[in-house]
Amino acid sequence: MALGTSTAAQAYELRFDTGRICLDLLATTHPVERLGSLEVLRAWITGSGLVPPGTSLAHADPSWPAAFRELRGWLGPLVRSRPAPGSASWDRALSRVNDLARAAPPAPCAVPGDDGALVRCLDGPPGLAALLAAVARDAVDLLTDPVARASLRQCEGDNCPIVYVDTSRGRRRRWCSSEVCGNRERVARHRRRAALTRT
């Protein structure tokens, strides 16, 4: 998990290892729906780094999870398929992500921390539109960066839909997580070999 990931985020088995916030949002569907409650969404917002640790999200209301799930639905076709301008569903998804990216993201500011070093905080409580904008802008950056787009990979794990940015040396990463899907593949390979030696 990413540095700064909250304990609450870990408790909900949220993952932040795709290399981009927008892809981390896509990963919240696997293996089951993760954004079914406001409590989990708050943990995801903090764990993803959208807001600094300790930022209050008490003002979030029950409409927020649905809004994040809707954005996630628009991101899926844009990230998982080749650009398809002219396709009604692809154009609609792109238009919606662009609309969401227009809002101003949360405004950061630097303040002295307990030890006197400057720390990042937000100028005020982040609104829903601002948080959605931050994720949508991350998606726009990803989709318009040819190098990053060329580094997108679909996990090779069985039934794993996670898309990640491959920043490994040689660009040979096969799984979203070596500890999760990679370990499953190694265990399955070991079991197949063991079964062959028994026959």
UniProtKB/TrEMBL annotation:
Pfam families in alphabetical order: ABATE, zf-CGNR
InterPro entries, A to Z: ABATE, ABATE_dom_sf, Znf_CGNR
Domain Zinc finger CGNR: 152-193
Protein name: CGNR zinc finger domain-containing protein
Source species of the chain: Streptomyces composti
Native organism taxonomy: Bacteria, Bacillati, Actinomycetota, Actinomycetes, Kitasatosporales
